[in-house]
Automatic annotation (TrEMBL):
The species this protein was found in: Elaphomyces granulatus
Name of protein: Ketoreductase (KR) domain-containing protein
Gene3D superfamilies: NAD(P)-binding Rossmann-like Domain
InterPro entries registered for this protein in UniProt: NAD(P)-bd_dom_sf, SDR_fam, Sec_Metab_Biosynth_Oxidored
Domain of life: Eukaryota
UniProt keyword list: Oxidoreductase
GO molecular function, one term: oxidoreductase activity
PANTHER family: KETOREDUCTASE (KR) DOMAIN-CONTAINING PROTEIN-RELATED, YALI0E05731P
Pfam families hit by this protein: adh_short
């Protein structure tokens, strides 16, 4: 477990670092202005992480992505007061649709040449069965896996630019990281011939596929983008508005359950602090860092220190269901998952444009 003291020391250092401290700190030069994209930043874990990020960095440029304008304007106004040198903007988009993701990414690409941090936490809690979007994917599965991968895929040039930007005239920061907040450690068996669960949908299969596919995809992405770190993070049990789609009775039951497990519930502000640590700590360097950085690094998703892809537990330690992940490895599942993901992108967002 990484102590809160260590987490807070890391986060406090983000503001005080100056150019002359770059070599001391190691892999990242955490100079302002950062560019941070919080997909799911209008509530819960994305909101609390964005707040801590804005609190601890110098003049960051932060984009919150979601649908709720009312929520967004409250958060933009609060965060702008918290750090008057920062710039917080809202992009409204329904990102359960991959074409909605493309629209949001086009807007960002028009404004930013680099993105230091892509924080992905958009999601829903629902007991509905398969709920197809106009693009033919299940809505929940799309939010928890496909749309997140589409953000990463679209913004890889900007993430790679962030990784190398310290050599440019602005001497900007080299932090280049993606954090996808879901459920590492809860990987389950994959149905390799029905990865999108067209014929085998159930809430349990959806949870297992979304989790395992996130865990495998971060490995694939880190291998082909060695200058960027990719993290699949588990937040623990956190009281947020995630139950908003349920009726009052179910919401009451969830609140009572949370109350009875209170000692194990991660307070929302702490959850934000811990995710800023995951998003910035040198414990999770990109693969290209190598050398001494890798020796000091956390163990990656493939069991190798500093491999650039990390499965991070709520307390900052590393996790992952080793049995399932080694079974996936023996079947070459990571490659199959990534090829399937690109096929989905091509079918929905390619020139023909249509349904999967
Ligand atoms: N809270 C927990 O205990 C817990 C535990 C394990 C895993 N997780 C996972 O962590 C993630 C974040 O959970 P949370 O508790 O922070 O949930 P939350 O408070 O409900 O926040 C979800 C975010 O997703 C956005 N969103 C949902 N549907 C969207 C859509 N179609 N288009 C654009 N944005 C959309 C929401 O924005 P708008 O409403 O503005 O659209 C909101 O900002 C989820 O994937 C969840 O499964 C949470």
């Amino acid at each position: 477990m990484v102590s809160l003291q260590t987490i807070r020391a890391n986060n406090a250092s983000l503001k005080t670092l100056g150019p002359e401290l770059v070599a001391v700190f190691g892999t990242f030069s955490l100079l302002s202005p950062y560019v941070c994209l919080t997909v799911g930043g209008t509530s819960g874990i994305g909101e609390t992480a964005a707040r801590e990020f804005v609190r601890h960095t110098l003049a960051p440029r932060v984009y919150l992505i979601g649908r709720s304008e009312a929520q967004a304007s409250r958060i933009v106004s609060e965060l702008s007061k918290l750090n008057p040198d920062g710039k917080v903007s809202f992009i409204k988009s329904d990102i359960s649709l991959l074409r909605g993701v493309d629209k949001a990414c086009d807007e960002i690409k028009g404004k930013e040449s680099r993105v230091n941090l892509l924080f992905l936490s958009a999601g829903i809690l629902t007991s509905k069965g398969r709920d197809e979007t106009a693009e033919g994917l299940d809505k929940k599965f799309s939010l928890h896996y496909y749309s997140r991968m589409r953000f990463i895929y679209n913004l890889l040039p900007q993430l790679n630019a962030a990784a190398t930007s310290s050599t440019d005239a602005n001497n900007d920061g080299r932090l280049s990281r993606v954090v996808s907040v879901l459920s590492p450690g809860r990987e389950g068996r994959l149905l390799l011939d029905d990865l999108s669960l067209k014929s085998n949908y159930s809430l349990a299969n959806c949870a297992a596929h979304a989790c395992t596919m996130n865990s495998l995809a971060v490995g694939e992405l880190a291998a082909s983008n060695p200058e960027t770190s990719f993290i699949h993070a588990y937040p623990g049990a956190v009281k947020t508005n995630a139950d908003r789609e349920f009726g009052p009775l179910v919401r009451l039951a969830i609140s009572l359950l949370m109350l009875s497990f209170w000692p194990w519930v991660v307070p929302l502000p702490e959850c934000g602090e811990r995710h800023v640590y995951a998003a910035t700590s040198t414990a999770f360097p990109p693969k290209a860092a190598g050398g001494k950085e890798a020796e000091k690094a956390a163990v990656g998703a493939d069991g190798v220190k500093g491999s650039g892809a990390y499965l991070v537990h709520w307390d900052g330690s590393t996790c992952g269901n080793e049995k399932i992940l080694s079974d996936c490895k023996s079947k070459g599942a990571a490659k199959k998952v990534w090829e399937h993901t690109l096929e989905v992108f091509e079918k929905i967002c390619g020139q023909e444009g249509g349904k999967y």
